[in-house]
């Protein structure tokens, strides 16, 4: 894999947290080169296009992108750039780790859950959504395929093996959604047989919500369809203290895009107080993807150490008095040490 990555600084707080993140990556000595490309409002202003072709070409060329949050303009019929990127590169796996960090306002301390969400089909196909002419009847067709279900379930098991995880839980609603969720569950049961070393269990989505809140320690890797994964992964982010610490990896066969789950935070943009951790954790996942697992782990540990021992340097959203820069400085010091 090439050592050049496409970098999209993004809108709002994007450039601030991206600068901090690249500074930390440089301090880690990963040997990465950055090819900066535009998307979002910056691209609309400069090139008259939210997602210029040159940006797509660069991502295709480098196969890996680190992406800041993008503002989706309201009105004017703009499609979300994020959705377009997922479709264009067929980024079928949305991987969202939720890990407890010290000093957050979370109710729990030992959570380490990875949600693997199917990112391309299910209830989120725009083609399946219709409204009758009189506006009285709305229909939404969920479509899951054997191919789509197989590749996401296999991805989850392979991830579990690679990361030394013990259990995969398939979350579904096959008791009611007998065809769409049923197909997914059947495929999950079949594929689980190929991984006897990993415990497999299945859970209905409503019960999963309750179990996640009451006994989150029982979960390890969750694999599920698009809509359930969207909701459950935010629930998991809430269990560990919110979006400031939530990375989101979008993985396909030919490209992968790593980003923070949060948006461009216009309310705090330019103030220098954005928490860079979600993007840093996405960068750590990117290092894993680039076969630099030791560097990824070092980065995660440096974030953890900073949050435990350097409370003054962390940003206000997690109870500190620091800034984006002071937080990044403290992490840089630790990855160098
Ligand atoms: P948001 O995630 O930008 O902000 C929600 C709240 O969380 C705000 O109070 C914000 O200050 C805070 N926050 C978010 N990230 C933070 C960080 N790193 N450090 C400290 N505080 C942080 O969500 P919102 O306001 O709904 O969306 C703003 C814009 O972002 C919209 O245009 C939306 O479309 C876009 N967006 C883009 C995403 C992406 O590119 N992946 C994802 C979500 C939203
Ligand atoms: Mg969501």
TrEMBL record:
Belongs to the isocitrate and isopropylmalate dehydrogenases family. This is Isocitrate dehydrogenase. Pfam families: Iso_dh. PROSITE patterns: IDH_IMDH. InterPro entries: IsoCit/isopropylmalate_DH_CS, IsoPropMal-DH-like_dom. Residues 4-331 form the Isopropylmalate dehydrogenase-like domain. SUPFAM superfamilies: Isocitrate/Isopropylmalate dehydrogenase-like (SSF53659). It comes from the Bacteria. Keywords: Oxidoreductase. The keyword Oxidoreductase applies.
């Amino acid at each position: 894999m090439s050592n050049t990555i496409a970098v999209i600084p993004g809108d709002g707080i994007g450039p601030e947290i991206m600068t901090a993140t690249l500074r930390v990556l440089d301090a880690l000595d990963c040997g990465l080169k950055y090819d900066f490309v535009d998307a979002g409002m910056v691209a609309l202003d400069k090139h008259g296009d939210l997602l210029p072709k040159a940006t797509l070409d660069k991502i295709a060329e480098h196969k890996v992108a680190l992406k800041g949050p993008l503002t989706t303009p309201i009105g004017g019929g703009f499609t979300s750039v994020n959705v377009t990127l997922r479709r264009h590169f067929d980024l079928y796996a949305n991987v969202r780790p939720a890990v407890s960090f010290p000093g957050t306002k979370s109710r729990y301390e030992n959570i380490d859950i990875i949600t693997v969400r199917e990112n391309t089909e299910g209830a989120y196909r725009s083609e399946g959504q219709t409204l009758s002419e009189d506006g009285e009847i709305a229909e939404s067709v969920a479509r899951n395929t054997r191919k789509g279900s197989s590749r996401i379930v296999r991805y989850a098991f392979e991830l579990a093996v690679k990361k030394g995880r013990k259990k995969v839980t398939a979350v579904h609603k096959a008791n009611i959604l007998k065809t769409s969720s049923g197909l997914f569950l059947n495929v999950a049961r079949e594929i689980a047989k190929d991984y006897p070393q990993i415990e497999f269990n299945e859970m209905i989505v409503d019960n999963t919500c309750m179990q996640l809140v009451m006994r989150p320690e029982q979960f390890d890797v969750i694999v599920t369809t698009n809509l359930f994964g969207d909701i459950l992964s935010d629930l998991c982010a809430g269990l560990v203290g919110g979006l400031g610490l939530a990375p989101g990896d979008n993985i396909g066969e030919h490209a992968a895009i790593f980003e923070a789950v949060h948006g461009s935070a216009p309310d705090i943009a330019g103030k220098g107080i954005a928490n860079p951790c979600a993007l840093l954790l996405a960068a750590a996942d990117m290092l894993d993807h680039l076969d630099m697992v030791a560097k990824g782990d070092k980065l995660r540990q440096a974030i953890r150490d900073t949050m435990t021992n350097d409370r003054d340097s962390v940003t206000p959203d997690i109870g500190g008095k620091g800034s984006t820069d002071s937080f990044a400085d403290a992490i840089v010091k630790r990855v160098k040490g």
